[in-house]
Design a protein that fits this description.
This protein has 451 residues and is an alpha/beta fold. It has twelve helices and 21 strands.
Length: 451
Amino acid sequence: MSETEYDYDLFTIGIGSGGTRASRVAAAHGARVAAAEEHRVGGTCVIRGCVPKKMLVYGAQFAEDLEDCQAFGWTIEGKKFDWKTLRDNVFRDVSRIEGVYTETLEKHDVTLFHERAEITGDHEITLASGKVVTAKYILIATGATPHVPDFEGSEHVITSNEAFHLDEVPGCILITGGGYIANEFAGIFNEFGSKVVIANRSDVILRGYDFSLRDRLMQISMTKGIEFLFHAEIEKVTKKEDGTYSVKMTGLEERSFDKVMVATGRKPNTEGLGLENVGVKMGDKGEIKVDEFSKSSVDYIYAVGDVTDRVQLTPVAIREGQAFADSIFGDVEPYSVDHTCVPSAVFSHPPIASVGLNEREAKEQYGQVKTYTSDFRPMKNVVAGRNERSLIKMICDGANGQILGIHMIGPYAPEIMQAAAVAVKAKMNKADFDATVAIHPTVAEELVLMR
């Protein structure tokens, strides 16, 4: 089939953050682009992930702010929280953002199909309606979906997808998992008044983050009333007549909860895409195996974002989508995304942010390292009488002072880390930070005051 015989130059399956960016940029380069999404435009991040979750985090933070404000002279009478008001306002803004995504694609003349798409042959896509189209290139950007372990009664649990749609805040909730989703929702529900229990199959939370931050978050979380159960996995969930759930976990007596939430990771969303029809190679988790340019084992099929299981972060998917579209359809030398030194955050209470190597990784790779820390109580917490300490940790190459990683837990940590990540990515030295004048009084000034 010649190039002119294809219906489209690019057909994107999945219109999340990565798929949207790739489709829009490819169209801007002059490509004829179509895209299919079986759910809602915007994907996980916009519809049921980081965007609505961050809105819940903002809402939860008011619980502490309203308590702390009294020490600053404020009197708040008759305060109360209404979950449905927050939930519905979040839904409203999510719909607004979905509209922006859709409008952006339509303005770039991207043809949208609001239905499922499957690869049914060489360069061939069949839509749920039965329509068959062809494309010179196919991009898979279908993201990932929550992984629910196999146990008796698993049909009774919720995941992060359903957490946004609850009719009320649960009085008592069990959250299984130790990653960022589990700890973020634990903080959210705890601030809204739930009794929160986190059950983790190991004895480590937030694996991959620096141990100092993990320990500090657990200490603060326990002080706030969050209960941790380690080496505990769900064996059985039973729904009782009163609507609550009885849960049996390994080595523990049965306990009752109003809701059971599973946050045990996410799996690439490749099932039913027809990838096996054209020989696309996949990994053990169902992820699409790609090279540095996001190309699969089939020359005309590419994949970006969580479906490749490289780095499951929205900004990474966007970078990958941009690089793909520029490299294939733009007048530039093909380029790839650097997946090293990617900053990340956990929007827990308080939040965590990190960039670069943690202390263990730095010692393994560099041998001699020098670590600087600042362990302090932010001024706001001092006045409020909140005994909650922040921690900043900087890890440097012992030989030349190059900053290998910065890790922080405390107020505004993600906002501060975005700027600090530039310095780490640029391979700056501790001396560069030391030579920078502090902005006082701020939390961020600790970055340039550590000696």
